[in-house]
Each structure stands twice: as structure tokens, then as C-alpha cells.
């Protein structure tokens, strides 16, 4: 599993090369994580974090 080559995703949903990415190498495997944000979202990042924290507290 660690010897597979990473192929570039060429589908229409592939992120642009200049999009933010986190790269982490563990052993011989390199993980590339790209993030994106919805352009149609009405919730700010702060609102989302507050909502997630509130949900987490309610589960305690």
C-alpha cells in the first residue's frame, strides 16, 4: 500500500494547484489534504466552530 504512486486527479472537481494543501509524509506514504469552502454557505467559520462546540457539550 505504501508503494503506490499518487496519480493526479484530473476530474472537473479537482482543486486548483494553488489551493491550500496540507502535506504529511508517514513512512513511505505521502498524504495530501486540500481544503475548500462553500461559496454559497451562509454560516461563518466562527459560527460553525461555535455550533460544533455547542453540539459537543450537549453530548457530555
Word description of this protein:
The protein has 60 residues and is α+β, with helices and mostly antiparallel strands. The chain has a domain at 21-58. It is built from 1 helix and 2 strands; from the N terminus they run ββα. The protein has one helix at residues 45-58; strands spanning 21-26, 29-34. It has a two-stranded antiparallel ribbon with strand order 1-2. The longest helix has 14 residues, at 45-58. 0% of the residues are buried. The model has no long low-confidence stretch (mean pLDDT 79).
Shape: flat
The largest beta-sheet arranges its strands as: 1-2
Q: With helices defined by DSSP (H or I, 4 residues minimum), what is the helix count?
A: 1
Task: Classify the secondary structure makeup into a structural class.
Answer: alpha+beta
Multimeric status of the protein? single chain
Give the beta-strand count. 2
For the termini, the CA-CA separation is: 38 Å
**Main beta-sheet strand count, sense and barrel state:** 2 strands, antiparallel
Please provide the ordered H/E string of secondary-structure elements.
Answer: EEH
Task: Return residue spans where pLDDT drops below 50 for at least 5 consecutive residues.
Answer: none
Helix content: 10-25%
Estimated share of beta-strand residues: 15-25%
Gyration radius, in Å: 17 Å
Mean pLDDT: 79
